[in-house]
Specification:
Blueprint: E1 4-7, H1 13-16, E2 21-23, E3 27-31, E4 39-43, E5 49-55, E6 60-66, H2 74-90, E7 101-106, E8 115-120, E9 123-128, H3 131-135, H4 137-148, E10 154-157, E11 174-177, E12 184-187, E13 190-193, H5 209-218, E14 223-227, H6 233-240, E15 245-250, H7 253-266, E16 273-277, H8 280-286, E17 293-296, H9 308-325, E18 330-336, H10 343-357, E19 361-368, E20 386-392
Parallel strand pairs: 1-4, 9-10, 14-15, 14-17, 15-16, 17-18
Antiparallel strand pairs: 1-3, 2-6, 4-5, 5-6, 7-8, 8-9, 10-11, 12-13, 18-20, 19-20
Helix pairs in contact: 2-4, 5-6, 6-7, 8-9, 9-10
């Protein structure tokens, strides 16, 4: 039996503007027995079809897959993934001998809400953020192989920590295709070990690729501090850019091991780099004024709106410490990946930090996520990465 949702009168307006979420409060009634992850058709109060998508428990009740009445079958997945792949080829990150590291699917940005796929060489790391995408993981994997062909040998499914915990799926990470231990990928001609088995996210922060390239442009002759370094992406680019010294700091000793391995992979025996396992705030407190290029790329301080006030204090505090210690004429790359923090709020936190530190500061660049992390124009919530490049007098 076809499963249907009928909306309350007037609640279809956002869908007519192609917003891909339907909130539980907009639902008038349901026909059929729904299980989380089911495909459901959505109708207006006046019985007009308006969308089809995945049903889920929570405030977002439906993630829309299509605004046309289509079958969600193998052809659907293949078509959507082909469109995403063609877009990555068009922007130059796919089929590029100098770059085999990119995001192939970015959720709502690619009209596949709840799905993320990152490509690392011949391996795709697939992540489901909804039960519906988890249910369809094998069909999606088959479509991925069909679209990417011989360039894809492995598909690693990594959704243990991203699926709704209340769904009680008992999901374990593992390979859906292949079983490769080869984990070196290339980004803009630089090599990186990608820890998709145990690393954060899908193993690498693909979304900072363009910003790392910009940093390389500013690194020559500078003393660089990369806070929250994780895999050391910014550090490796700074080394290639001709930095005088590069210091990488992370609270995780495993991250420090990984950044050291990535430096050695690209610059064997180069003694310009040193890594430290330390708390970021403590390191900034205790360091001297030796740095004239600092990168602040912390994990999300606010993963939901309830944590917003605390997060903004955190961004202000850590930027204040950087402003107080950076050399005159120094450059600060500072970021927020918190979706709950908008551009204006982040900029105000950084402005406040500069004022407290009593430094003259100019904005050189306003940064954001790259083109392989597209923002659906009808879904502004998809814009999450914010960054500023600042010249500090």
């Amino acid at each position: 039996m076809e499963k249907r949702i009928f909306l309350k009168k007037g609640k279809e307006d956002s869908l007519r503007r192609f917003h891909p979420w339907i909130f539980s409060g907009a639902i008038h009634h349901i026909e059929g027995e729904l299980q989380e992850g089911d495909i459901v058709k959505v109708y207006t109060f006046d019985n007009e079809f308006i969308a089809i998508g995945h049903w889920q428990i929570g405030s977002i009740a439906v993630r829309v897959l299509s605004f046309r009445d289509v079958d969600i079958d193998d052809d659907f997945w293949t078509s959507r993934l082909t469109t995403a792949y063609e877009a990555r080829k068009a922007i130059g990150v796919a089929c590029n001998p100098q770059n085999n590291t990119y995001r192939l699917v970015h959720g709502e940005g690619d009209n596949l809400p709840g799905l993320v796929v990152d490509i690392y060489g011949q391996t795709a790391v697939m992540q489901a953020h909804s039960v519906g995408m988890h249910v369809h993981r094998n069909e999606i994997a088959a479509a991925l192989k069909l679209v990417l062909g011989d360039s894809l040998s492995n598909i690693y499914y990594k959704s243990e920590t991203t699926l709704p915990f209340k769904a009680s799926l008992g999901q374990e990470n593992g390979f859906l295709l292949g079983n490769s231990t080869e984990n070196v990928a290339i980004e803009n001609g630089l090599k990186f070990h990608i820890d998709w088995l145990k690393g954060q996210k899908t193993g690498f922060f693909v979304d900072q690729r363009d910003n790392r390239s910009l940093l390389e442009h500013y690194a020559k002759g500078r003393n660089v501090l990369n806070m929250f370094c994780y895999t050391g992406g910014f550090s490796v680019y700074a080394m290639r850019g001709g930095a005088n010294i590069v210091h990488s700091v992370d609270s995780s000793s495993k991250a420090v091991d990984l950044v050291n391995a990535n430096i050695e992979l690209n610059f064997p025996g180069d003694n310009r780099h040193e890594a430290f396992a330390a708390d970021a705030f403590k390191y900034l407190d205790e360091m001297g004024g030796e740095y004239d290029l600092i990168i602040l790329d912390p994990p999300a301080f606010a993963k939901h709106k309830d944590a917003l006030k605390h997060a903004l204090k955190g961004y202000t505090k850590i930027n204040q410490k950087a402003f107080e210690k950076i050399r005159k004429g120094g450059i600060l790359f500072t970021f927020s990946c918190s979706q709950a923090v908008n551009k204006d709020q982040f900029r105000m936190a950084v402005f406040t930090a500069a004022a407290i530190a009593r430094r003259k500061v100019r904005i050189l660049h306003q940064l954001h996520q790259p083109a392989d992390h597209p923002i659906n124009i009808y879904h502004p919530e998809g814009e999450y990465l914010k960054g500023l490049v600042l010249y500090v007098e």
